[in-house]
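Fresh eyes needed here. I'd like your take on this protein's tokenised backbone:
***
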Amino acid sequence: MFDTNILIAIESAYKTGQRHQELKNAGVLELARLIEKTSRYGVFISPAAAYQELPPARRGDVEAAFDRFLADYLPNFREDPNSIKVPYAGAKMDPEHFSALSLERQKAISCSYASLLAMNVIHRLEALNGLEKFALYIDYCAEVLDLISLKELTIARYVFAPENGLTDQLRTRKVAITNNFVKLKKGGGKGLTPVKVLERIALNGANDLKLIAAADIVNNSREQFNFGIIEHDVWIATSDDKLYEFCCACPGYMGRERGGPLARYVETHTDVKGTRYWRDSIEIQQRRLEERYFTVDREKEMDSIVQSAFDIEADLLNGKADDYFRLRSWRSARVMHD
């Protein structure tokens, strides 16, 4: 499964007079050799998730470059027999802004985007400690978004965690998560206002989680044939060092049916010494999830979450986001002690 940066690297290479060298420098030729070597095992390339991140105005050029790349470097490659060519619209759109995405794409990533945007605002509230930030965050997800996603919740729990008592492995995980969901790569914020930096961070993170979720779904699927069952094994090809380090540090975000989401995404870390954060945060998490179990709307429409994302963007633009969450922070004390 290709990340968008792979397709963009291919498109950029075909716009230069040194296509082969550019592809080599980007590591794409090494990837092509790996695909060619393993093609006899039924390896297929899936660019669909990457195409969804692209603005419709660019997808035509990117897809044309990708087709040329396959013809030049993987002439024996066959597309997945289940794949379907989908026509693309020609409207001009800026892929770097949530508001410029199609409504379908907005709905698909709205929970991740709104959650991560809120997390980044809360993370920068210096007056609150880690547990207060976590309580404020989960309260926002439950009461405003009316949807708590375990993936984003787990990310926030690591981001807000204090340094006290961290083992080397736990610190590696916290750093990888923070780098991917709280920061941009070096130079990524050039020319952006602080507000636009936060929006870019949240959008990049939401797109990463959507890519991982798509890969995870296929990774846990299988096809029944007369001769038996074929299980799928999915790999993500990306040039994003931050995403790679995150996936290495948090292998549970993709896995094969290991007890479902709760068992796969939640590690309590209650044995960490020197702080009550891990124990108290998991207790808050369990309590809020139990409270919502019988009341949550399992057929919730995503339009309201899309609107919540727009509301945070508006508050950021008007300089009101910090005050909004500070005013909500009184609820975090109730959440922690209920």
